[in-house]
Amino acid sequence: MFRYTKLTAVREVIVWVITLMMLLPLYMLVVGAFKTTEETLTTSAITPPSSLDFTAFVEVLTSTGRNSIPMSILNSVLITAGSVAGLVLLGSVAAYVIARRTRHWTTWVYYLVLIAIILPAQLGTVPLYIGARTVGLTGSVLGMILLWTGILLPLSIFLYAGFFRGLTTEYEEAAVIDGATPTQAFFRVVLPLMAPATGTVAILAGLIIWNDFFNSLIFLGGSTVQTLPVAMYTYVGGLVSAWNKIFAVVIISMIPILAFYMFAQKKFIQGFAGGLKG
């Protein structure tokens, strides 16, 4: 039987203190975004605003030019969604072949995938940039989609392969007996069972791509196409004292990825737990 003791109370107090300390930066971010420029300079970071002021959000969302926040959000969404779609499609198919084929070469391919995950992607930045510039893929959404699909494909294959190895072959065998082709059995039977793995791949890859600054700065530098982290950097550099606008940009950048996580969190948790239930 559980007994509430002094030790339990001390533990609860410690947990609450740690939680409040972790939430303090988020509180300062939200509070600062709703302050006027004058208030951000004259009041403490933890002082609530005298009144909710949406001027920073309005000015940021109505900005124009090469570093327009609305256009940067659109570019980030297109790049992230396109890359995730490519990773799910190519990663699942490649992992299925590696997991289901018993030939010797599939083992070596799997080891190469592991090596590709371990090696830093920055090692290939220069040859990748030269190649992309040669074929005209720098400064474009399509080029970034192809870049991220190639960089994160080993991770996608690795995650899917682990799930396919834990899935019995009875599902696709039953589908083939019912008259389905191997392709139909994969896309209509096997892949839907991989929803937890798909959620894991989508969230992990989506977070990496959405928050990327280095590759976007290198491969989109000097073009009219900019992603949200790069556009946010120009605000930090150009509006040193207008912290309310900087905080507003940060909050706006958090909303899409948080919404996506809330939508796919069930599959994401199942993916980490290794479950196959939909």
Automatic annotation (TrEMBL):
Keywords: Cell membrane, Membrane, Transmembrane, Transmembrane helix, Transport
TM region positions: 13-34, 73-96, 108-130, 142-165, 185-210, 217-236, 242-264
A Gene Ontology BP annotation from the UniProt entry: transmembrane transport
Superkingdom in the source lineage: Bacteria
Domain ABC transmembrane type-1, chain residue ranges per copy: 73-264
Record membrane topology: Multi-pass membrane protein
PROSITE patterns in the cross-refs: ABC_TM1
Entry's localization field: Cell membrane
Pfam entry (one): BPD_transp_1
Family statement: Belongs to the binding-protein-dependent transport system permease family.
Name under which the protein is recorded: Carbohydrate ABC transporter permease
